[in-house]
Amino acid sequence: MDRDNGIFSEFLTYPMTRAEFLLGKILFSMCITTVQALTTVVIGAAVLDVPLHAAWLPMLFVANALCTAGSFS
Question: Model's pTM, two decimal places?
Fold first, then answer.
């Protein structure tokens, strides 16, 4: 999408490698999706009385990270 909008060619002029650029995009997406997932779980527990098991939160984070990072490959 960045390439289609012309932003990617601008990013290539910055003093960073393509791998650093891609890693930054992946880490940013992982942070955003983690906040979204936690917000959804907390609101579901508070509003809909969904049982919240603290032992499942690390598994949620790992699944979230794998799905987000996997979408870039």
Answer: 0.66
